[in-house]
User: Fold this.
Amino acid sequence: MTALILLLMGVAMVVAVRGQRGIAIGLFGVSFVLAALWLNYHIVDVLNLSL
Amino acid sequence: MASLVRLGNAVGAMGIAIVLLVAFGMQFVLQELPCPLCLLQRVALVLCGFGFLLNLRFGVQPLHYGLTILAALYGAAAAGRQVLLHIVPGTGAYGSALLGLHLYTWSLILFVAVIAGVAVLMIMGGRPDHDRSDHQTALRFRGLSRFAAWLLIAVTLADALNSFVLCGPVDCAPDPTGYWIAKYLP
Assistant:
């Protein structure tokens, strides 16, 4: 999943450089939502903040 | 002042690419494989760099800075979570320290610095470049700006390949000991 998010961002950057701003920001949005969901998936464990 | 802001955005994009290259260096030279949260911090760096890249290509606009701040907050959440995982004495740490701090601690400091840097650029920026045509902004996208953008793109795509080789298409091991692709190589 991380590879897919990074690939999407790479594509978004190439699209931006080629001048398609709307599509690039759309791809950023998709990547950001996926990244947020993926972070949420990885932080479900309870934190121990004291001894 | 506009050229200074433009330089600031180029330095931001290049700085992020260089930080990602340092992370690559530690991975390959010290043989320290990144954990899932470490990879998510790399994702956050790439997301931050995207806002700088948009400013370089389309001119400075508040929307682009907003994307960078949003990405930096996301990165601070991922790095902060990892700092908290190891904050209790005796709970160990992940990876080697660099200049006395672990990479996730540097990462948290970096994301706060990105937010501060964007604030300074916005203060210096003055009026956004809404009135410039795409042709005008495309003409100014050369030299250092172009180099910074393509360096960031190259590092992002290399990171995508690295993540796939390390974790495969779905999930990464919490404490990886080898590359996922190695299982399929003779």
